[in-house]
Amino acid sequence: MELRHLSYFATAAELGSINRAAAALHMTQPSLSRQIKELEHDVGHALFERTSSGVTPTAAGNGLLRHLKVVFAQLERMPEVLRLAEEAREPVRIGLPQGMPHDWFRTIIDALRQTLPAASLSLHEATTEDQRPLLQNGLLDFGLLHFDAPELETVLLLEQQLGLAVPAHSPLADRASLELADFDGLTVMAHAFGEVNAEETRVRAAVAASGADTTWVFRRFGEHSELIAVTSEVDAVFMTEASADRQLAGWVWVPVDALDTNGVPLVTSTWLAWTPPLRPFLERVVEVMTGASGVH
Question: Which residues does UniProt call coiled coil (predicted)?
């Protein structure tokens, strides 16, 4: 089995056709078919179901594809790994989710650079769910997750209060804080999916339990959150202050001082997560990050 055979297989799977893959790889169709057959013989499994319209990976083929994503990603990192090794530096790959306060994380970066100058930080933006397999497959050293993943080692790094971002002209904009009763009569935009679903579920349950009549609009947040909020004609957006500062310029964020139905404050937590065991240098990274996080 050769690496090029695996690459040929991945291209055919991506394009769904041996003919299209052969054209993309500048090969003849019979030559590509023969080499994929050789790969199937080497691994002992049929990798494609062949039909008149093209090819579809089998269960074994899909399993190999998932594994190859890890293999190819590691191969792409080889030049970086070799360069850092020559410079006597240690790569530290960290996943960052949405809603991360930049000033808070800069404090952690400064602490790492001061305490562990050999650390070469590489940051990768990804949701909590996307980070979990990357951690398990060794493509990230650490993840910052918005829940405590049971399959990983974790330590609490950050808690952020939740609140409502409202337009500057809103009657709520001058309030120092809000209660659950203030949700009554509002149309509130919240995440359709992603980073703080658990917290949003808690606040919706708490608002309902308080008797407030609230209309919820679910959208995906990002670069165009303000346009989405305006066109959705909402009164407020449920989010953290850090997200409001970045995504809703000119809006006013007001914290919600309330408890959920279990009497727990409405905050969103961020956990540092990793797959054990860690090499000694990365154990020091955990110590520095937890020490600089401000959570005790």
Answer: none
pTM for the full model? Answer: 0.74
Average pLDDT over residues 18-36: 93
103 and 67 within one domain: no
Question: Into how many domains does the chain fold?
Answer: 2
| Tally of CA atoms within 13 A in the half-sphere of 49 that contains its CB | 6
Non-local (6+) Cβ contacts of 143 within 8 A are 94, 95, 126, 128, 131, 132, 134, 135, 152, 272, 273, 274
Burial class (CB in 10 A: 0-12, 13-18, 19+), 198: exposed
Residue labelled with tokens 């910052």 = 144
Instruction: Give the bridge partners for 143, in sequence order.
Output: 95, 273
3-state secondary structure of 121: strand
Q: 65 with 103, same domain?
A: no
201 in Cβ contact with 192 (< 8 Å)? no
Partners of 131 in beta bridges: none
Same domain, 142 and 250: yes
Same-domain pairing of 155 and 15: no
**Tokens read off for 288:** 């520095």
Q: Is the predicted pLDDT of residue 196 greater than 60, yes or no?
A: no
**Residue from 183, 108, 201, 93 nearest 147 by CA:** 201
Same domain, 72 and 100: no
Claim to verify: residue 145 and residue 273 sit in the same structural domain = yes
For 157-183, write each residue's pLDDT tens digit. 999 999 999 999 999 999 999 999 999
H helix or E strand, kind and range, residue 131: helix 128-136
Find tokens 């990050």 and name the residue: 289
How big is the chain, counted in residues?
A: 296
> Does the pLDDT at position 129 exceed 70?
yes
